[in-house]
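Researcher: Go.
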Amino acid sequence: MENHPPVLGIVVPCYNEQEVIASSIEALSELLFRFTEQELVDNKSFIGIVDDRSKDATWKLISEISEKNPRIRAIRLAANRGHQFALLAGLLEFRKDADCLVSIDADLQDDAVVIGQMVEKFRQGNDIVFGVRNKRATDTFFKRTTAYIFYRFLKILGINVLHNHADFRLTSRRVNEELEHFSEVNLFLRGIFPLMGFNTSIVHYARSERTAGTTKYPLKKMISLALDGITSFSTVPLRIITVLGFLVFIVCILLMGYAFWAYLSGRTIAGWFSTVLPFYFLGGIQILCIGIIGEYLGKIYKEVKRRPRFIVDERIGDIR
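Model: Structure:
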């Protein structure tokens, strides 16, 4: 691979991105042209777009642009499945058409220029190249803080993730072939790829401002993604319940001793301490534990159904 330019596919999941999709395709096309001129990638390299059943004119624009741009290949999902499934669909659909695939969001806030560095590291023998932000100046203080807490929390739970890495990465064909064997419905790709092993490398970049449109990852979706990451890769929360139950038992024993001592010394209101405090304390603990167990049961419920993770409705370009 060092002597032969690889066929590169740039996978772009998008949802309601009519404001930026045309400019993003133009920028990526120019990038591929430059890489081809430099003999960094093969002339067969392409842009693989995944429309996550947009409600605006995104798919129409993609169709129109593809008539003039031979590098465009695209699929449209039959239903909106969310960013992670749209990205998975692109990686699985385009994996046989390229030696390596790079995933990047349609807003191009991730620096597409460093894709060249990713390809160079791939040609040096790395199967996975992670794009890691070296600064998050464009994010709000709240988002930077919660992201830091989230990554730290995952590390504490024993989940192997890269801090400040989202879904901007390069993966080789054999990695994408192996990805098909990860059949879970509760998808958290940021945890799957580090888990796979293979030779890996990192490319750092600065994240830029969104030029148009609005983010498709509001707080609700970020919380949902965080829960998927935690419950899909760690059983520590379930173990915490066991430890918590033991601690509550010890505390109750101590409270019983204190209540008995307070009763003998005449410092209590009869019946209040022994009834009210344990009632609220144990009730809160039980609700918390039921919630955690319920979250895991919900994940199991989705997994055992074995429903298709996505369905492709339409295709554009030279793909299956």
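Model: The mean pLDDT is 80.
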